[in-house]
Amino acid sequence: MTRRAARTVSCPQCARPALYAPENQWRPFCSERCRLIDLGHWANESYRVPAESGPVDPASLAAPETDMLSSEG
User: Fold this and answer.
1) What H or E segment, with its residue span, contains residue 43?
2) Residue 2 burial (CB < 10 Å; 0-12/13-18/19+)?
3) Does residue 34 contact residue 17 with C-beta atoms inside 8 Å?
4) 2 vs 22, residue with greater confidence
5) Is there a domain that residue 58 lies in?
6) For a designed S-S bond to 30, which of 6, 11, 42, 54 qualifies (C-beta 3.0 to 4.6 A apart)?
7) Phi-psi category of residue 15: left, alpha or beta, with phi > 0 → left and psi -120 to 50 → alpha
8) Could you tell me if residue 71 is inside a domain?
9) How far apart are CA 27 and CA 25, in angstroms?
10) In terms of pLDDT, which residue wins out, 69 or 29?
11) Do residues 19 and 29 touch, judged by C-beta distance below 8 A?
12) Which parts of 1-73 are beta strand (E)?
């Protein structure tokens, strides 16, 4: 069985080369420091997906439907 050569990728945090193989315990990051910085961004909710705000439909703000468990019976 032949072993594939480990590939190198850019660290998502600092863009330095990082080994993308099981030997790199912080992959895809180059170091524990870069991994912790990225984790901090997630914890602070810095990563967000932009959303378009459009007109609000009043029908979508109506009272929620009644609970199925509390229906008359």
Assistant:
1) helix 32-43
2) exposed
3) no
4) 22
5) no
6) 11
7) left
8) no
9) 6
10) 29
11) no
12) 7-10, 17-20
> Who contacts 6 (Cβ-Cβ below 8 Å, separation ≥6)?
19, 20, 21, 23
Domain of residue 26: give its range: 7-47
Provide the number of structural domains found in the chain: 1
Position 11 in a domain: yes
pLDDT at 67 over 60: no
- The end-to-end CA distance of the chain, in Å, is 67
When mean pLDDT is compared over 7-16, 41-50, 58-67, the highest value belongs to: 7-16
Q: What is the rounded CA–CA span in Å between residue 29 and residue 66?
A: 49
Answer with the residue of higher pLDDT: 3 or 16: 16
Query: How far apart (Å, rounded) are the C-alpha atoms in residues 41 and 45?
Result: 6
